[in-house]
Design brief:
- By secondary structure, this protein is α/β, with parallel strands linked by helices.
- The chain has twelve helices and five strands.
- Helix 7 links the parallel strand 3 and strand 4.
- It is globular and about 65 Å long.
Length: 289
């Protein structure tokens, strides 16, 4: 059987329901090559402004999924993101920013992409078309019912993601998803779907644009809200951030100066001693400075 025939078989298997794929509909703009640079930038920006409104409509769905994420992480579980292409890269980006921002383990939020780590920089052909590989990748991390898995796919039809979500459901693992089409196979399979319908892209089918922006906004909301509920933020400050460069050390010093009403020299000494903004605050307030 040819590659095209195999692909069509998979498409028929996953698309056993009819739904409108707005991410693939024709752009509202045409003759892009005839537009000036100003026109192109203005029209892209006009389309981008619709994204936050689409996300706003999905807040009830986002809330339901975040509650599940918080519950799992509070009880020792992990959050997994699973995606292909742009969606996979965005999941990895969000996961990779959690340790430096909130001081959590690299094993708490994990991003996986079809094709493995090499696909982060360079597309791996047909990696997203494997029905089984997504769950195999999760099993390599000893996935269990203590964890939660969020599939990310603008189309809502990516076999790598959809197959993994279905397998997770079958093994009592809580599942969610982020997609940009209404009633897609993925959103109908995930237990806690998030559907952010942003409409046709400026360049037809280029879901790295509005769909990617929507996914990034939702991912920000999921992990930031979760980490706040896990007490990784004090007031509005990242008190558990890793002090991994001079900018962050300076930020930590300024946090201490403001929180404790102390001078810069004292703040520097505290941070040098405790190597943590949170610990410095706690020890100072407990009289152990």
């Amino acid at each position: 059987m040819s590659l095209l025939s195999l692909t069509l078989v998979k498409i028929e298997y996953f698309y056993n329901m009819s739904f409108t794929k707005t991410t693939e509909q024709d752009s509202n703009y045409d003759h892009l090559e005839k537009m000036s640079i100003t026109e192109l930038l203005t029209n892209i920006n006009t389309e981008d402004q619709t994204v936050p409104h689409a996300v706003e409509k999905a807040i009830p769905q986002i809330e339901a999924l975040v509650q599940q994420v918080v519950n799992k992480l509070e009880n020792g579980g992990r959050l997994f993101y699973l995606g292909a292409g742009t969606s996979g890269r965005l999941g990895i980006l969000d996961a990779s920013e959690c340790p430096p921002t909130f001081g959590v383990s690299h094993d708490l939020v994990i991003g996986l992409i079809a094709g493995g780590d090499s696909a982060i920089r360079k597309a791996v052909e047909f990696a997203e078309d494997s029905v089984n590989q997504g769950f195999i990748d999760l099993q390599n991390y000893n996935i269990s019912k203590n964890d939660i898995v969020i599939g990310i796919a603008a189309s809502g039809t990516t076999p790598y993601v959809l197959g993994a979500i279905k397998a997770c459901n079958d093994t009592n693992i809580v599942t969610g998803c982020i997609t940009c089409n209404k009633n897609s196979p993925l959103s109908l399979s995930a237990q806690y779907p998030i559907e952010v319908v942003v409409g046709p892209e400026f360049v037809t089918g280029s879901s790295r644009m509005k769909a990617g922006t929507a996914q990034k906004l939702v991912l920000n909301m999921i992990t930031t809200t979760t980490m706040i509920k896990l007490n990784k933020v004090k007031g509005n400050k990242m008190v558990d951030m890793q002090l991994s460069n001079y900018k962050l050390v300076d930020r930590g010093i300024r946090m201490l100066m403001k929180e404790l009403s102390i001078d810069q020299k004292t703040a520097e000494k505290l941070l040098e001693e405790h190597q943590s903004v949170r610990k410095a605050i706690q020890n100072f307030k407990n009289g152990r400075n």
